[in-house]
């Protein structure tokens, strides 16, 4: 089962990783923010005029980093899974 089947499976896994990493990162960030602030507020939204700019930028930076790490982990895991099933590393 080597060849293009692995490439198609890998593309599907990559698409799921792309979509889910942002959602998971947002959820993790909200929980971490609530834990850090004793559950007072959720993480600031960029459109929230009552929040300071540094809070908004800090949250955006952390969420971006979390998204990138999760996307890389899910994509790499998908590639490893495709190799285990097909014997080929996806290109």
Feature tags:
91 residues; mainly alpha; 2 helices; 0% strand
Describe the structure.
- With 91 residues, this protein is an all-alpha fold.
- It has one domain (4-86).
- Helices cover 74% and strands 0% of the residues.
- The chain is built from 2 helices and no strands.
- It has helices spanning 4-36, 53-86.
- It is elongated, with a radius of gyration of 18 Å.
Short recap of the structure:
By secondary structure, this protein is mainly alpha-helical.
Query: What amount of the residues lies in strands?
Result: under 5%
Q: What separation lies between the terminal Cα atoms? A: 15 Å
Unreliable stretches covering 5 or more consecutive residues: none
Rounded to the nearest angstrom, the radius of gyration is: 18 Å
**What's the multimeric state?**
single chain
Q: Looking at the structure, what is the overall shape? A: elongated
Q: Helix count, per DSSP?
A: 2
């Amino acid at each position: 089962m080597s060849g293009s089947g692995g490439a198609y499976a890998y593309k599907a896994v990559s698409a799921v990783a792309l979509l889910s990493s942002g959602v998971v990162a947002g959820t993790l960030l909200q929980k971490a923010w609530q834990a850090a602030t004793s559950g007072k507020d959720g993480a600031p939204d960029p459109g929230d005029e009552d929040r300071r700019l540094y809070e908004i930028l800090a949250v955006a930076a952390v969420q971006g980093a979390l998204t990138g790490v999760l996307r890389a982990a899910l994509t790499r895991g998908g590639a490893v899974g495709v190799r285990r099933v097909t014997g080929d590393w996806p290109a």
